[in-house]
Amino acid sequence: MEELQKLTIQVRRDILRMVHKVNSGHPGGSLGCTEFLVVLYKILMDRKLTFEMNGFDEDLFFLSNGHISPVFYSVLARVGYFDVDELNTFRLLNSRLQGHPTTHEGLPGVRIASGSLGQGLSVAIGAAEAKKLNNDNNLIYSLHGDGELQEGQNWEAIMYASAKKIDNIIATVDLNGKQIDGATDDVLPMGSIKNKFESFGWLVVEIENGNNIQDIINGMQKAKSLTKNNKPVCVLLKTMMGNGVDFMMHTHAWHGKAPNDEQLESALEQNPETLGDY
Amino acid sequence: MKKYTYTQKKDTRSGFGAGLAELGRTNPNVVALCADLIGSLKMNEFIKENPERFFQVGIAEANMMGIAAGLTIGGKIPFTGTFANFSTGRVYDQIRQSIAYSNKNVKICASHAGLTLGEDGATHQILEDIGLMKMLPGMVVINTCDFNQTKAATIAIAKYDGPVYLRFGRPSVPIFTDENQTFEIGKAINLTEGSDVTIVATGHLVWEALQASEKLFEKGISAEVINIHTIKPLDKNAILESVKKTGCIVTAEEHNYLGGLGESVSRVLALGHPTPQEFVATNDTFGESGTPTQLIEKYGLNANSIIEKVNRVLKRK
Questions:
Q1: Got the DSSP string for A39-95?
Q2: Residue A254 sits in which domain range?
Q3: CA dist B59 to A111, B11, B95, B113, Å?
Q4: Average pLDDT of chain B to the nearest whole number
Q5: B215-222, Cβ contacts within 8 angstroms, sequence gap of 24 or more
Q6: CA B121 from centroid of its chain's CA atoms
Q7: Residues A245, A31 contacting (CB under 8 angstroms)
Q8: A223 three-state secondary structure
Q9: Which domain holds residue B231?
Q10: What is the C-alpha to C-alpha distance for residues A61 and A46, in angstroms, rounded to an integer?
Q11: Lower Cβ count inside 10 Å, N or C end of chain A?
Q12: Considering only CB atoms, which residues of chain A are within 8 Å of chain B?
């Protein structure tokens, strides 16, 4: 647990330093999902240490809300898919760490381009169908923003997954209640996301504190236990956008904005170095 | 000059269905997806023989493209089937991000392309799909001319690793290519040798071009007809070699002149051998209801239109 805490803090530092350096990127949602991705890659996923695109006989993860690439890249590097020094190249010309994740430059750990929202669940379902055809018992994990659910393709995919009994998938929705233009309830209220998934035939697990490592582990283990039961599984992960940096929390202002020098200093002070900066 | 005849007419979509069925028997990685148009895409045989490798996604083309992309990750070779309009324009961003940019081995198979689906009218008659697809980096674009070629192309694209757009159609058209042909992506086929004009045609217009060349021959005009089944990558050498001999060219396609085969040929000529060119294509317009024969006549896509453009381009030599 201490190791997970340390990694979480170090990933936060990575996120902040990455977006600060290029004065662009999305720190808010990245910080909100840091604990989740740390737990996913360190505890939950049964995965191979080296990257192979086909992902045979291992769990796979698909990031649909590609704008939280900073946390994705940091976690991928910190668990060994590529050297952490490469985080220095985030959003720079000729980098494998593009603004939004892509397979185009061959970055290990990424299996699909994402960023244009609403496409990841369909892709994850396709990968889940392939696992079934291959008699591969491993699982598919995916992560989606709550605002992202406003894209209609999600609902095509949600309908398909229950109709076709895609029960080897755990799709997690980051319920931070915020999107670029403001609170999700102001931009386009979606009502109860839980009710929507349930009425579409999914099993739903709620994680009340999606920034608490133990709560995430418990919730995801429960979700895992519900798989292979003829129904797709959805996890509603309630997170705090900007978590771990006081001035980035309780606002949507840091969705797509980088901290300045002073703000970075303050943010890093709140997250002292644990495993060594890149 | 070499004459082409036929004993049978069939729709090119049935060639796709036959090719897919054969792939089902020979390649265990081939899977198929359809968005509620199994009968129209002639996918029944594959489905009957390989029910576990078929995915009916319902009327949800965006989801279909995403699922196809995901299937490739597990080593599958997905063939998606729906009308050309719903295979391209409706799902452009899904193809762009999840398939083309992600370099996924998806075969987008599109029936009812162009005007000749007929009576359904403009909502279903896409004349922009070649342009949409050829603009995507890495996308191969193929438009086949008859049953045999469509079958051969369907089988061939399974062996190619990368995204492919395969375009075919609804009407019955003469079968004039070899039943046992080997389909080579990107390799133009010279159908007739000629010295006065080059006619480069794709899809249903290849047969019209052959008809035109016979009538032109009777009037003493020697036309070289090239079947360009692959619009991207384009066989530049075949085009350049021919126009160096003939000195003028007509391109023919069931597509808008904007973004179609003709424009791709123009670029080859501009860079390699500037040559007078005329276009047989629709003129920045939507289609409408009618029979296929009525439509290709009204929109200037038949043998007579090709002859007219040949006469025009000959004067510009």
A1: HIIIII----SS--TT-TTS-EEEESSGGGHHHHHHHHHHTTSS-GGGGGGTT-TT-
A2: 2-269
A3: 26, 24, 17, 18
A4: 98
A5: B215/B303, B215/B307, B216/B307, B216/B310, B217/B1, B221/B196, B221/B197, B221/B310, B221/B314, B222/B1, B222/B194, B222/B195, B222/B196, B222/B197
A6: 20
A7: yes
A8: helix
A9: 189-315
A10: 11
A11: N
A12: 53-56, 60, 62, 102-104, 111-116, 119-131, 133-134, 136, 152-153, 156-157, 159-160, 163-164
Query: Between β-strands A169-175 and A140-145, what pairing exists: parallel, antiparallel or unpaired?
Result: parallel
By C-alpha distance, which of B68, B46, B48, B137 is closest to B96? B137
Q: What is the DSSP letter of B97?
A: I
Is A175 part of a structural domain of the chain?
yes
* Band of residue B261 on the pLDDT scale cut at 50, 70, 90: very high
pLDDT at B73: 98
Looking at the complex, does the CB of residue B31 fall below 8 Å from at least one CB of chain A?
yes
A164 CB neighbours in chain B (<8 A) are 55
Closest chain B residue by Cα to residue A157: B63
Say yes or no: B217 and B168 in one domain: no
Catalytic amino acids of B?
61
Query: Looking at the whole model, is its pTM more than 0.80?
Result: yes
Residues of chain B above pLDDT 70, percent: 100
Nearest chain A Cα distance for residue B92, angstroms: 12
Per-residue pLDDT tens for A78-120? 999 999 999 999 999 999 999 999 999 999 999 999 999 999 9
**Is B60 near chain A, with CB under 8 Å?**
yes
Which of A193, A202, A184 is CA-nearest to residue A236? A193
Q: Per residue in A150-163, pLDDT tens? A: 999 999 999 999 99
Q: For chain B, how many residues are written? A: 317
Per-residue confidence (pLDDT) for residue B1, from 0 to 100: 83
User: What CATH number is given to the structural domain containing A60?
Assistant: 3.40.50.970
User: Is B103 touching A (CB cutoff 8 A)?
Assistant: yes
The position carrying tokens 């980051």 is: A174
Q: Which two tokens stand for residue A275?
A: 């495993």
Tell me, what's the pLDDT at B8?
A: 97
Q: Are A70 and A18 in contact (CB under 8 A)?
A: yes
Residues B143 and B39 in one domain: yes
Give the one of A54, A153, A160 whose C-beta lies nearest to B74's C-beta: A54
Q: Which residue of A has its CA nearest to B51?
A: A133
Domain count along chain B: 2
User: Which residues does chain B have within 8 Å of residue A126's beta carbon, measured at their own beta carbons?
Assistant: 66-74, 78
